[in-house]
Design goal:
By secondary structure, the chain is of the alpha/beta class. It has two domains: 1-81 and 109-200 and 210-225, P-loop containing nucleotide triphosphate hydrolases (Rossmann fold, 3-Layer(aba) Sandwich); 228-324, Helicase, Ruva Protein, domain 3, CATH 1.10.8. The chain is 45% helix and 16% strand. The strands form four sheets. A five-stranded parallel sheet has the order 2-5-8-1-9. It has a two-stranded antiparallel sheet with strand order 3-4. It is globular.
Length: 324
């Protein structure tokens, strides 16, 4: 059972979530589901991989969210010549105030609350890996010294699905660090008309801060306190284990088309997503429907298909839907 102050916190979060959607609609037309999933990821201390063609507002969404959440925003444009030190920071030699000389550490753009890693697959794995420690441990190690990152810390990486020439696919170990893999779709005709009206006029909305840093951290702790029935935890683990071809109970579609299934981190993120979703909805306990709803963004990047899937034109999304 949840305590009275926790129930009050859920009501407070519901109200702020409605205010957030109202404010962000002044800038972003539609994309409510994507915004919901990004906020859930933040509440779960997770990270997002956002895939969409250019011009759909990926950068604008995360920049606007950072403003509404009162978070320090940093954008890193990934290029083939980007070095790890360009992200984490580097030591420079300079004169000190005391009169001596020595090395000082100049912090890189990773030292912010909300990081936009734009076109992350444009840079080699060595530079991509500069994000790994920050994403998992929320700290950066440089020249043998560890620096703790300011909380809350959230990475949203984008990929362009069209241009694959000169790109470097993300390693599976790094993909697994992302809670959600989100696909940004084209707007409807009505939404596109509204976008045109807003962006080709003198329209310039004034946004107000909805969440403070302290409130976000408080709500992140609240998500962890949401109770989950043993039956739901067992159901989640069972469904995730069905994605593994080595599992004797896995369906034929898995054994035929999947090389590697999802690991325990998928089960963790499904439960966390269900917890965050239920309190955003004003409920006090998650259900199987919550697990099913977020199975696609959680599992999409964790199932490795084989040649048979490519030959038969079987998509990962179809496989996940067949299980859930």
């Amino acid at each position: 059972m949840m305590e009275k102050n926790e129930i009050e916190l859920i009501e407070k979060l519901n109200n702020k979530y409605i205010d957030l959607l109202n404010e962000i609609s002044k800038v972003i037309v539609g994309q409510t589901e994507i915004i919901n999933q990004i906020l859930i990821s933040i509440l779960c201390k997770g990270h997002c991989l956002l895939i969409g063609v250019p011009g759909l507002g990926k950068t604008l969404i995360v920049k606007t969210l950072a403003e509404l959440l009162d978070l320090k925003f940093s954008r890193i444009q990934f290029t083939p010549d980007l070095m790890p030190s360009d992200i984490t920071g580097t030591e420079v030699f300079e004169s000190k105030n005391s009169g001596g000389k020595g090395f000082i550490f100049v912090k890189g753009p990773i030292f912010a609350n909300m990081i936009l890693a734009d076109e992350i697959n444009r840079t080699p794995p060595k530079t991509q890996s500069a994000l790994l420690e920050a994403m998992q441990e929320h700290r950066v190690t440089a020249a043998g010294t560890s620096y703790i990152l300011d909380e809350p810390f959230f990475v949203l990486a984008t990929q362009n699905p069209i241009e694959q020439e000169g790109t470097y696919p993300l390693p599976e170990a790094q993909l697994d660090r992302f809670m959600f893999n989100l696909w940004l779709d084209y707007p409807s005709n009505a939404e596109e008309v509204e976008i045109i009206k807003k962006t080709t006029s003198m329209y310039s909305p004034k946004l107000k801060v909805i969440f403070t840093k302290e409130e976000i951290i408080e709500f992140q702790d609240l998500v962890r306190k949401v109770p989950v029935a043993d039956e739901l935890a067992e159901y989640t683990v069972k469904q995730v284990s069905l994605t593994r071809p080595t599992n004797s109970t896995s369906p034929d579609i898995i054994k035929k088309y999947i090389n590697w299934g999802a690991g325990p981190r998928a089960s963790q993120y499904l439960i966390l997503a269900a917890k965050a979703a239920c309190i955003l909805d004003g409920r006090f306990s998650p259900s199987k429907e919550d697990i099913k709803k977020y199975s696609l963004p959680v599992l999409r990047h964790r199932l490795i298909t084989n040649f048979n899937a490519e030959a038969d034109n079987v998509k990962v999304e179809d496989i996940i839907k067949s299980i859930f």
